[in-house]
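S.,

Sequence below, as promised.
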Amino acid sequence: VGLRLLLSPLGSNVVVRTACCSVGICFPVYSTFKAIESKNKEDQDQWLIYWAVYGSFSIVEVFSDKLISWFPLYYHVKLAFLIWLQLPPSCGSRQLYVRYLRPFLLKHQTTLDQIVGGTSSEINRLLLKHEREIQFLKVVLRKSFGT
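The prediction came back faster than expected:
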């Protein structure tokens, strides 16, 4: 029944969106943990590449989601895509990384380094400027949660 509901074109978007979250985030988080703990470089590389591709996909999706989420079966296609990214036979994330993401990042590496460096400096400046407020918030949260 669950699989039928998940794969049904008329199935609830809530069910399919939950499946996308589970497949796209929850399973990879645990798999990444297992790869780190096993110290297996191949597994670690696989999951680093997955997260790089997933993060890139998420950035694109932020800007396009309102438009493309209206297409019929969008979340079903997204679920299939997330599964394809992870499956060892297809190694979809590795294919996308090697063909598109890596060349793009290599080409724009200098510019991206400047953007990241500038952004990091601004964030540090902002944190230093509001250090007292941050410390106050930490105290309030510790008291609230008893840690």
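The chain has a mean pLDDT of 89.

Coffee later?
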